[in-house]
């Protein structure tokens, strides 16, 4: 089964993709789009060259190539429109349409190319049709195929993946990166007395990335690693890992890098038989999980994620337009369009996309808050810290509204 690199969904809860299943108050997102554009966003370059297949020949114009458009920039959206992930692709496509409508943008033409029949073929057609920027693909494993076609044509790629290994000088990763959530939580916990950290980590890429992020955060912010246990994902496996961790002891804080459901099971085990109550840390996978507030064992648990302040209005507006709640990842499509519109202020139609405009340290503002790209092509997001407290999940440390350095 192919892994989808999506924010909040890696690893996906119970192996399924999840919708942002909350309906929030709010009016029309046109106000949000206007506010975001007025915020004056920018972006950033990359030093390491990522590995990609040998460059493909420059495609010939396709038989269905779009007519010459002298008044609008051509942007390609590469998402699946068929198969298991079609609903996710459609949600992102809907969100890009919303962004154009909410901002009354008339200088962009966004064409959707279906990747379900082949990412490489979709990319070749997008380049042959004269697109100057590619938004997508959805999966990290499709990036090399897109890059092999886009790089010779000088077309940058903004991927919806959260896999930082695919980022490069011409590939920008806009997904929600789990390492940043771990780092922010550890920093906050250290400032509030956490000294000895342990971790429960699922086997596989997500667990490995969480482990590395914990090590790096402890190196930068202080604190000791008291122990870690890994497990195959499943109910009994994480409980067994929690038993082993409890028996070893020596920690005051435990990072559980998994879904809210499994984290609750593990925490119940850690607190069994009157064991000392440790501070629990989670990751961005916990965002939007109301079950945390109903679990008494999770009181005091912390995690970091992008603010949902603007998402509430986004979800309400999306449902009004399309008759359903959006997948949480749909905001990436919306924010990618806002980013492109900001760059388009000084971008002459028919010329290459000015990639240098993506390297502004001041950052951009989107539905998911402030963000900017590092010179490695990886997004940096402003995250808030939330705490489970008294049957509620509250923000205890607000996300920065911008970047100062």
Describe the fold and architecture:
- With 405 residues, the chain is an alpha/beta fold.
- It has 2 domains: 38-47 and 71-175 and 309-379, Rossmann fold, CATH 3.40.50.2300; 178-305, Rossmann fold, CATH 3.40.50.2300.
- It has 11 helices and 15 strands.
- It has helices spanning 30-38, 86-103, 119-128, 143-150, 178-191, 205-221, 235-248, 260-270, 291-294, 309-322, 330-344, and strands spanning 73-79, 108-114, 133-135, 157-159, 171-173, 196-202, 224-231, 253-256, 279-281, 302-305, 364-366, 369-373, 379-381, 384-389, 392-397.
- It has a 5-stranded parallel beta sheet, with helices on both faces. It has a 4-stranded parallel beta sheet with strand order 7-6-8-9, sandwiched between helices.
- Helix 5 (178-191) packs parallel to helix 6.
- The radius of gyration is 21 Å and the shape is elongated.
- Residues 1-59 have low confidence and may be disordered.
